[in-house]
DNA sequence: AAATATTACTCTGCCTGTCAAAGTAATTTT
DNA sequence: AAAATTACTTTGACAGGCAGAGTAATATTT
């Protein structure tokens, strides 16, 4: 299991990528992350909902209520055009970050 | 210039790698990072010295005073055996983090 | 039918890493 | 002598992430 403070700062990317594929609700995203990473990373509930709040305030995502099924009412999120642009920036940034960190990791692996 | 909150959590690795090569003092490390990254990343002074304090307390690095030259007295740091083991862990962790983030970046670049 | 588990979201208060700003001090350059 | 550069330290603040506790509805088990 990867420490979460090392993933810190990349949660926006991960979450945005998932809701870019299709609108999703919180619990679903949390499950999806666990599945895709094979449980190597799990987002904490409190963190996930904090990210939603932050991104919604910045108009990067929008929320709407979906059907109530299998428990509590689901709050779905969709990515806005602004959000798509933002995600694009994050993707570029990630490849630059990889380059930079790799610079210092070279010869150690 | 890469945002520093995206490098966050990797400063230990970067700094340890540099003092693994040879004992270094703070200002030198700061310069070296700028040079190697071609100014794509610069560590802030306050941050650098905070990292030193943290790593020294954990006995990952040790300090000693060197000659006074070109200004203030230099405080050199060396990596301890514990530090080498720690750095090793960080290197492994980095390749796992890359895999995980890349999982979510796939198809977007 | 009652108890338990699962699904699903929210809120509060805390911790940690990073940083701006200001300060100290010695040496080098102008 | 003044200014720039080298070099380190401290303080206080901020933001992201998280543990823990709570609310509420549906599904499953007993």
UniProtKB/TrEMBL annotation, chains A, B:
Residues 15-88 form the Transcription regulator PadR N-terminal domain. It comes from the Bacteria. InterPro entries: Metal_resp_DNA-bind_regulator, Tscrpt_reg_PadR_N, WH-like_DNA-bd_sf, WH_DNA-bd_sf. Signal peptide: none annotated. This is PadR family transcriptional regulator. It comes from Lysinibacillus xylanilyticus.
């Amino acid at each position: 299991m990867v420490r979460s403070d090392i993933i810190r700062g990349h949660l926006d990317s991960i979450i945005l990528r998932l809701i870019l594929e299709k609108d999703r609700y919180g619990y679903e995203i949390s499950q999806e992350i666990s599945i895709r990473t094979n449980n190597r990373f799990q987002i904490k509930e409190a963190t996930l909902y904090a990210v939603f709040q932050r991104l919604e305030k910045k108009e990067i995502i929008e929320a709407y209520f979906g059907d109530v099924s299998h428990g509590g009412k689901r709050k779905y999120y969709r990515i806005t055009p602004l959000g798509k642009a933002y995600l694009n920036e994050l993707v570029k940034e990630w490849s630059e970050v990889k380059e930079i960190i790799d610079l210092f990791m070279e010869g150690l692996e």
